[in-house]
Structures are given as C-alpha cells and as structure tokens.
Amino acid sequence: MTLSETTAVQRTLQVALDERSYPIHIGTGLLGDPAVLAPYLAGRQVMIVTNETVAPLYLDAVRRGMPADIEVQELILPDGEAAKTLESVSRIWDALLAAGFNRRCTLVALGGGVIGDMVGFAAACYQRGVSFIQVPTTLLSQVDSSVGGKTGVNHPLGKNMIGAFWQPRAVLIDIDTLRTLPSRELSAGLAEVIKYGLIRDAEFLAWLEAEMPALRTLQPEALAWAIERSCALKAEIVAEDETEQGVRALLNLGHTFGHAIEAHQGYGSWLHGEAVGAGMQMAAELSRRLGWLEQYDVERSAAIIASAGLPLEAPMDMGVEDFLSRMRLDKKNVDERLRLILLETLGRAVIHDQTPRELLEELLATFPRS
Amino acid sequence: MTLSETTAVQRTLQVALDERSYPIHIGTGLLGDPAVLAPYLAGRQVMIVTNETVAPLYLDAVRRGMPADIEVQELILPDGEAAKTLESVSRIWDALLAAGFNRRCTLVALGGGVIGDMVGFAAACYQRGVSFIQVPTTLLSQVDSSVGGKTGVNHPLGKNMIGAFWQPRAVLIDIDTLRTLPSRELSAGLAEVIKYGLIRDAEFLAWLEAEMPALRTLQPEALAWAIERSCALKAEIVAEDETEQGVRALLNLGHTFGHAIEAHQGYGSWLHGEAVGAGMQMAAELSRRLGWLEQYDVERSAAIIASAGLPLEAPMDMGVEDFLSRMRLDKKNVDERLRLILLETLGRAVIHDQTPRELLEELLATFPRS
Q1: Of A240, A275, A336, B251, which is the most buried if we count CB atoms within 10 A?
Q2: Which residues from chain A sit within 8 angstroms of residue B145, using beta carbons?
Q3: What is the location of CATH 3.40.50.1970 in chain B?
C-alpha cells in the first residue's frame, strides 16, 4: 500500500531552518501508515507520549503506523494545562531511562499543544537532545505549535517559563483527528487561522471569509489548505526571527487583550482562541480609532471572527482597571505606553508602542461587553 | 584601576563557534574587578550561583566585581556530585522567577564542574535560554568544563542524562582560586592537562614534563599557560565536532578504563582525574602491546602521570571481570569489540575498535595493581 493509495488529501510543506529544516505533512489517513513515519525515525527506539483523552482515540493508529522492526514504548500523561509541568516531563525522562533509550531514539508527541510542548522539551534535554516528531491532534496545535520550535513547561510563577527552542524532525497533521475535536475547540483553533490572514495575507483572509462554512463542517480540502497556509505564514515569520527578537511579535495580534481576558476569567474558563478572537476585534477597533482601519474593515473583521463561532465582546464583569492591571500597566503612570500589535490594513500588522494612553483607556471603557 | 594594573598574569583565548563564540580570560586578580565582568552582562539582572564550599571563599570577591548598577541575587547550593540533580536546577529556576528575572538576565556559575554544568543547564532552559558566565574554581573545571558547552544534571539511572548544549558568554579563570584547592584535586585536574598533550600535542607534553614542579607549586605563569593550552586544544576538537559525533571521542583517552575504576570503587572514592590517570597509563600500555608505542614511550607516560601525583596502578581488588562488566562487555561474547581511545604516538590519539579481545583481557589481567 503506497502513500498515494491511502491518503485522499496530502500536502507537504517544508519549514526552512538550515540544518534543522523539516517537513509538515498534512492529509487524511496519515496515522497508521508506516510509510509516513518511517523516514523520520533516527534509530530503532520510539516512545509515543500522549494523554488520557487522546490515547483511546488515536494511540492504536499511531502504533500501527510504526515499522515492524521498531521498539515502541508508550507513556500516557494526564490531560490539560495543569499537567504541563516539569514533573510531567520528568516522567518522560524516567520512562526513557528505564527503557534504556539511547541518543538515537525518537519521541512522538501525540496530542494538542500541551503534549507537543512537553515532549519537545523532553526531547531537547534527553541526553542533550534527541529527535522528536509532532503529531498534533487539535486545530490549534496544528496551526500554531507545529511551527516555531518553542517547547517547555509552566512554572507556578509563570507560563512557559522553563523550556528550549528545539525543532521536530517532522510534523504529521492528520486532519481526520479533527472529527473528534469538540466544536468549541475547533473554533478556538480557527482564531489563530484568522490571525495569520489578518497579520500577513489579505488574500488568505478573503478565502477564509468564503470557506468558513466548509472549515466548520470539516471539509478535508478546505481544512488542509487552511492549515498549510497558516503553517506557511508562521514559518515565514519564524524563519525571519527564529529566537524571537523582533517580527515574531506580530504573532501576538489579539494576544495582549486576550491574555488579560484569560487571566481575569481564570485560565480554562475562556479558551485561549476565544480570548484571542475577542482580543483581535479589540485590536481592529483600536486600529480604526488610530485612523488606520475603516469602519468597513472593522465590520469585516467582526464578521469573520463571528463566523468562526468566536466571541466578539469582552467579558461583562471586566472593567478598564481589570484590563490595565492584567496588561501590567500602572493606573497612576499615564506616561507608560503599551507595546501592541495593531493592523495598518486587514492583512498587514505592525508593532506599535505609541498608542496614547487615553485612547487605550477609552477603547477599554467603550468596547462591547456581554 | 585598569585591568593591566590589577592583573599580574592575563591571557585571553577565543573559542570560535560562529555566533556562539566567546572568550576565556585566564589570569590572576580577575575576581573582584568590574572591568572584567561588565562586558558580558546582557541586562541589569545577575544571579551568582555557587556552593557551600566556594561561597565563603570567593562569593564576596565576585560580588565586588559587579558593576554598581546591576541587581545581584545569590544562590548557594549544596556541594558535591550528589547535588547535581534536576531538583537543584529547579531551585535556580524558582529563585530566578521569585526575583522576577527576565530574558536579558545573566547567570554566573561560581564553582567547579558540578556548579558549571547545573548553572549552564538552568541558563539553557530559563525562558528558553539566557546568558551565563563560567567562573570555574577548580583546575579540572578550568581545563575541562570551560570548553564544550555541555551542561546538565545526573538522573538516578545515569550520569549527565538530562541536559543541553549551551555556550557561556565568557569564561573567567582566576588562577588565584587554585590556592584553596586541595592538592589531591589539583593533581586530578592535571590528569586532564596531561591528556591534552597525550592526544594532540607532543610539544605541550614535553613542556609539561619540564614544568610539572612549577604547576604543582602554583607558579602563575606556568598555570596560565597549561590552562590556556589545554582549553585551546579542547576548543580545536570541539570546533571540529560541536555535538559529539566523531573526533570529540578522543577526549575520552583513559576514560573507559577510568570510568570502570570509578564505578567499581564507588564514585568519590577515587577522584575522576585519578581514575583517568591510571586509565591513560592502561591505554598507553595497551597501545604498546598493539605495537604502536615503544617501551620508552610507556615509561615517559608513566613518569609524567606520576609526577602529577596521580596513581599509575589499578585498584588491588579489581579483577578482569570487574573491568569487563563495567565496560559493558559480555564475558561470553568474545567477538564483541570495544571502542577505545589509544595512542599511535605520544601526542597523537586514535579511535580504535579492533583491539583483539584476548589482548584486552591480557592487559586487564597483567596491569599492575596496588
């Protein structure tokens, strides 16, 4: 059985990072096909790391996709952001050492962004660095964590505080896995897809406006293109700024407002993508008030965010000061300026630290709540 | 006060690793001089990490060497290889976060190899990588850990199993710190110095034969040159093979036998350098039996190892099978060959995996014990 016979949709995107370049394979029927995984296994030892939610759904398929001569170990971690700790990564290291895995072993990260971040970090530091393969199973991780090489864990005093930049050998995105994804999480992933259009690709944004129904009903061709284009746009930005010194900040469109919403509501109450959806609309409205966007642009932005099933309004109980404090702005120091990602046009974002403080506070006071 | 007025001896060696290149400053009176440290501080936040043995001796001096506008935090960890754990590195991360240190902070590793390895690893993974400066205070760490970028910690199932390759911004070797080093540890450091001569530099080896008394009585000029030449030789090898795929294995001369001795006696009973001393002599003797070295060469090797105050004989209670099992050789599988670092001449080492098993066992049976 060759690859072309088993997969109805198959696209490949190359992420160019010199000697750390790797392919992203996007398609249907990828899991369970040994021809897909085999080229990326460094040695004969593989550990599949997944979580309690994903294991019953896809672990068998990934195991079936292993060539016959490979020693396969499995590790199932708890699900959720609360498990994204150094202790969980230590469990991976314990399991690798207990199994006698050497420097030519390969880790497979099967799950969403939390699993990908932890397994990537475990690979970065096991014997000073071994290979790993990402198999992201949520739309968010497919379009976000697949590209960029950021790995790590949370610390009680901060998210993603401990980690490393470490690139996978390959990313396998089987869009069939989205069939089991809750619709709310699909929408949250679409927030990041829309973000790529807003910050860098007006044509892609127009395509998303037309194809949003196809995406929300999981049409494979539409999903594959949305994922490929998102990954390509992120890869362009990351290639320009691998270790996050400059342009990579554009990826934070909607995130400053979004993080404030997530933190104020308590993480997990709003999904990250939901907060980013509302946050992007806040950035669009602020961009209009700065004279960059037209009212028409703001309505287009609102329409596409809403069509993805995302909120357009901030939480009812969140006041101006709640926002300011979460954005680490001192109420008394009105000279203090915030570095924000804003939109010059739909399709071009900029880093801007000259927003007058009264304009920002006016936005926070008048932006719709629900 | 300028640098030249405060330091009687001052040498600088550049380690060339493209954008990760850094200088090694070697001299007297370096600690306590702000002009030395200042150029390598990335931001305004510095954490000095040291251990309980070194802190009372040199922490004040390093603190005095900080420019006045720097926020300095300190962390004192337990001394010894047993403290080289992920838990200790976690304490560094906890302290950095508690102090609100950002991505432009700098860690200073003040101590021997254990401190250097842990602080380097903490720097590699704090917010996905921050700057660090090595201030090695033992001869072994000055000539070994200063170059190579290996960082990490031990795991109950293996030494140095968790870690990263991460280069310092600079290495400051103040040879005054050797005045407080126990003489046995000075000898252990000299084992690695001799090793560099044996594997790669016959002229340096001849110089060591003449200057060993000056080194053991801590003559600054002699120490500075021995350290500089050792670091330069290691840097040449590391530059050829940064992530340890090939020629870097030559640095393991004497280490296969040495590790067997250390493990059999219990770590800490023989110092690493002592075991390497005896191990190098075993490698020299095996090289003679393979027809490469003359009897005269073996006697020269023995003389210089002995003159450094190192043992020339294996432990009395260690039999052939003790060696074989510690070297992971199966007694029954006589076809199995060991990859050893051996000497073609004094000053040129090779990687050799064709030593006949009976020749190896004969060496192990007949090598002197005490």
Answers
A1: A275
A2: none
A3: 3-179
Q: Which of A25, A195, A264, A272 is catalytic?
A: A272
The CA distance from A166 to the nearest CA of chain B, in Å, is: 10
To which CATH superfamily is domain B184-366 assigned?
Answer: Dehydroquinate synthase-like - alpha domain (1.20.1090.10)
Range list of H helices, chain A: 3-6, 34-37, 60-64, 86-98, 113-125, 139-143, 183-200, 202-216, 220-240, 255-265, 272-289, 295-307, 320-326, 357-366
Predicted local distance difference test score (pLDDT) of residue B238: 86
Using a CB-CB distance cutoff of 8 angstroms, which residues of chain B are in contact with residue A242? none
Closest CA to A356 of A339, A341, A337, A340: A337
Mean pLDDT of B192-206: 98
Pick out the residues of the known binding site of A. 79-84, 113-117, 137-138, 150, 159, 177-180, 192, 255, 272
Rounded CA gap, A324 and A346, in Å?
A: 26
CATH topology of domain A3-180: Rossmann fold (3.40.50)
Which of A85-99, B178-192, B323-337 is predicted least confidently? Answer: B323-337
Residues carrying CATH 3.40.50.1970, chain A: 3-180
For the segment B197-203, the average pLDDT, to the nearest whole number, is 98
Q: What is the DSSP letter of A222?
A: H
Kindly list the residues of chain B whose beta carbon comes within 8 Å of any beta carbon in chain A.
Answer: 86, 90, 93-94, 97-98, 121, 124-129, 150-152, 155, 157-158, 160-165, 243
Q: Please write the tens of the pLDDT for every residue from B81-105.
A: 999 999 999 999 999 999 999 999 9
* Among A97, A98, A163, beta carbon nearest to B128: A163
Divide the 370 residues of chain A into consecutive groups of 10 and give the mean pLDDT of each group.
Answer: 52 86 94 90 95 98 93 97 96 97 96 97 97 97 92 93 96 97 97 98 98 97 97 92 79 94 87 96 98 98 98 96 84 71 97 92 95
Q: B244-294, pLDDT tens digit by residue?
A: 667 889 999 999 999 999 989 987 789 999 999 999 999 999 999 999 999
Q: Between chain A and chain B, how many beta carbons pairs sit less than 8 Å apart?
A: 69
Distance CA B135, CA B111 (A): 7
CATH 1.20.1090.10 placement within chain A: 184-366
Tell me the percentage of chain B whose pLDDT exceeds 70.
95
Token representation of residue A206: 């127009």
Catalytic annotation on B244? yes
Q: What is the dihedral of CA B337, B341, B344, B350, to 10 degrees?
A: 90
Please tell me the distance in Å from B59's CA to the nearest CA on chain A.
Answer: 27
Residue in B94, B155, B165 nearest the CB of A129: B165
**What topology does CATH give the domain B3-179?**
Rossmann fold (3.40.50)
Q: What is the ipTM of this complex?
A: 0.91
| A93:B243 CB<8 A | no
Taking contacts as CB-CB distances below 8 angstroms, the residues of chain B near A126 are 161-162
Distances (CA, A) of B127 to A115, A125, A153, B28: 18, 14, 10, 34
Q: Which residue has the tokens 């970090």?
A: A121
Nearest-CA distance B127 → chain A (Å): 5
Residue B6, pLDDT score? 45
